[in-house]
Amino acid sequence: MDPQPIDVTAAVIERSDRYLIARRPEGVHLAEFWEFPGGKREEDESLEACLARELREELGVVVEVGVLWRRVVHTYPEKTVALHFFLCRIQQGQPRPLHGTEIAWAAPGEFSRYRFPAADEQVLEDIGSEKPSFR
């Protein structure tokens, strides 16, 4: 029987047809891979509250968390994650890496220049075809 997946949130933030991505720091699962910013949900925390907290702590921004756009369950050899991708809009601040990570604004046609985890593959394709935006 598979263990319960770990809930992880991710923000899809669009600005001028580019999407905010962040590089995972050294010493963590999937270190050096790029991802949509977010993080692991704490016990008794809603997914939306988790995402708002993670973006405030990691990037120094206040966001409006919109609709759940995609949910992906992916099993890695060491764990299973349930990734919840929300459309978000920055309300306050400019994103900046507060924990030594790197950030970038990438257009869908540029995603192939970055190394993303396997769990993000379908979402990357969907962004390229649908161009989701909070608008």
Could you please describe the fold and organization of this structure?
The protein has 135 residues and is an alpha+beta fold. The chain has a single domain, classed as Alpha-Beta Complex (Nucleoside Triphosphate Pyrophosphohydrolase), CATH 3.90.79. It is 17% helix and 39% strand. It has 2 helices and 7 strands. It has helices at 47-59, 121-130; strands spanning 6-15, 18-23, 34-35, 38-40, 62-75, 80-92, 103-106. Strands 1, 2, 3, 4, 5, 6 and 7 form a 7-stranded mixed beta sheet that branches. β5 and β6 form a beta hairpin. The longest helix has 13 residues, at 47-59. The termini are far apart. The mean pLDDT is 93.
